[in-house]
Specification:
mainly beta; 22-stranded antiparallel beta barrel; 54% strand
Length: 989
Amino acid sequence: MKLFLSVVSLLIVGFAFSQDKNTGVIQGKVIDSETGEGLPSAQVELVEKSQKVLSDIEGIYNFSKLEKGAYTVRIVYPGFPTQVVNDVKVKDGEVTTIDVIMAPAVGDSLIEVVVEAKRITDTDQGVALKQKNAISVGDVVSSQTIQRSTASNTSDVLKMVSGASIQDNKFAIIRGLNDRYNAAFLNGSPLPSSESDRKAFSFDMFPASMLENLTITKSATPDQPAEFAGGLIQINTKSIPEKNFFSFQVGTGINTITTFKDRTSYKGGKMDWLGIDDGSRKIPSAVAPFGEYPLNIHDQAKVAQQVSTNWATTESKFLPNLSLQASGGFNKKFGKREFGMIAALTYSRSFSYNETVRNSYLNSTDPTSSQTTQMENDYLDKNNVTNLLAGALANFAFKINDLNTITFKNIYSINSSDKLINRTGATNASESNPIIIRSNARWFTSDRVYSGQLEGQHGLRAKGFKLNWLAGYSNVNRTIPNLSRSVYTRNKDFIDPSNPDPRDTMYTANISSSSVGPAYGGGMFFSENKESSVNSRLDFSYATDLFGKFKSEFKIGLYNQIRTRKFAARQLGFTKYGVSGGNIEFDQNLLYLPEDQIFSSENMGLLEPAANGNPGKGGFKLTDGTKPSDQYDAQSVLNAAYIQLDNRFGKRFRFIYGARLEYFQQELNALKDDLSELKISTKKLDVLPSINAIFEANRRSNIRLSYSQTLNRPEYRELAPFAFYDFTTNFVVSGNDTLKRALIHNLDLRYETFPGRGQLFSATIFYKNFINPIEQKSRPDVVGEISFQNVPSATNYGLELEARSLISTIFGLDTSSLFDDLTIYSNLSIIRSQVDVSSVVGSVADSRPLQGQSPYVFNAGIRYDNARNQWGVSLNINRVGQRIYIVGNVNEPDLWEQARTFLDLQITKSFMKGRAQFKLNIQNILAQNQVFYQNSSTARSEVKGLNGFFNTVFVGDKNNNQGFDKEIDQQVWKTNFGRTFSASLSFRL
């Protein structure tokens, strides 16, 4: 109801801000063809009205409240030929966008140039221009591209970028480098890690509908933070609108293996619909804080009597998915001043059901061993999942005059996942009488993210001077209010067939007498991770012509970031209340009760007192299994300064070079399990040079060469001693306090050409050399535990190819033909890496690929846009090669993820003069299984012909020995997925 009222309120505001439908707007941007940047203070004249305005600091101009008709726009800027745009059509209630690219005069000629008006309906051309004139190697995804895709959140958008892939549906891998080597920024401010167990940001938190564009910078420049090696991911949310508007959208969807099927769930909280726990799952008030909890078992029994828990499950049907969105904005002028805002609400609830086969093996590391590989565990997980994504955006801008603008951007996102995982199967599966298991996990996770930025852009009266500043604040709150586990086991057959005992084959709750842990039922895990980041930035630049003919820009800046994190976990569990040989005996009959009865209040504490010389009967007590290492706090301070020069020599050569100075301080405080203190204090000063050289082969093509040094620092979680058990993977994740920062040398060579009309082709060769890279791997000394370590060195290199073209251009057809509406696009990355682990204890071989690195990533698509009939179709394909998911050791082999292909389709139809639009999306059409496997080192049979050739090119191995072969490799996990059909209807007022 609250969501509904909020949307209605925004609807009312939208109508209040609706603009006059009887007038139109002409607006656009004056762009320097050589730099791709806006030209400030250009004189733009509306000839028929004799109105003159100056473009603002970003080169943007605007004429509002214009009557329907045709107009002439004249643009004048010193040093450039005057441009005249004729026959600019204005329609009531619409914005006509005219972007003008100003090219320098040839020789001394400054004649007036007349340009035919062409309304821009596709931002691909603007993105291509921005990419061509960028100072570094990178890729841009425009809002138009996002809108035409099937993307529902930011992680879906990232899949479109050359060399990028997504792991676990939310973590970015760029150029084969996993999430720890990529940095996330929102509107210029860094985003703190959203995960309590890895250095990563979950990119499924932000709805795609709130994005203006997404940029991935792949080569460093001095004015950018240096902590990345794969890519610097910059997310920009919607900016201030050109005209007043209000829009809303409603959508629904179904999944072929989920919707209307049986659903197993449990009683949650009243605020689950909003992704927030209402407190019903929190630690009961009767439980004393850690360190004050009673150690006496009788006192623990009394606490158990005061605790009320509900372990019952419920049965229902999965409903269709639901999505709602409302947004509105306005723009108001006060003379030369202008104020605007945009606000949006989005809400999405989706359901998924899938089944995961989970196997583990004995004797699987050494193929020459005389012992054969045996099945250890054989489980089936039935995953009932509800995902919720809600977001709110409010951005404001105040243009003081043509040279000064202040913006205030805010976004708040809630992302929750509510799982009930039912696990059945056998342990010691190869034995004649294995143990049969039945287990449930109730796992609610809520992530709340706020990010706000106050930014100022100022053009000083002295020509060429610019001053930009930014102050940002981000906060991530991740809670697991109660991850509860129940575990029941039984024998498959009677232990003694000659003397059968019915209880041998009855499910019995696994409850310990005193221990709390993943092997026992009745366990409850609680955690909260609070992280905040305050950052500020000041940039000063001066552009001039050296010696009257070399365009140059001098830029200096300061940067500061302060991060703090406080993490705390609590582990409680029901245990048996009894005294061996004493006057209280635990009632063993309780272990045969089902999970909706076993932990009822009547089964807690002392059930019957001792009488007549007979011991009393005990139920359950509540034991605190929290360890001293289950909490830590940390802080880091980053101070940076840089100097950057951008010099042009003639019309073809451009050099962007300089250095960045970063002084980093990091502190972490925790206790180890032996109660010894862990205090980490790190101070490090780094000088990081970079150079980007650009040769403009012609007006449409560039050749880029860049070198830079970047860093990768340990994350708090990777240093902390805290150990977390992941029910879904059966692994424990712990930290390593000896980690040190990694230094990366980066080299890029790119050729790129932009034929026009939004088309592009690029080819990039890159090479990276890592010193002390941080890797996640399984510990050889502890079975089933993952930690982090530095390895001596690693290399990563590859080739990226990207193309986007109109069919009419490829075949030389007339631009007015049907094929002019067809666009094809593709990017392919072929990547190789090698990690030196020759000196690492427990490693199986001397070298291996980087964790998370796929040998190839392929994206392609075809799009048809019919502007006249207002409908379009797009088909997208994405394939990622096999990659190491968890690095193994001499006791546990590497765990690999099999290559998979995704195919998505979208059909759109607009009507009501473009004010309404219908979308039909079909996602994951192929619905391939996700398979994780232990790769056998047994040699594959020789692959010949075309398959052998493609294996050599794409995976670097003719026989693809690291690929999955179900005949000889051990399948560890296999998860099935259904196809998702979704439809939405949107209206714009």
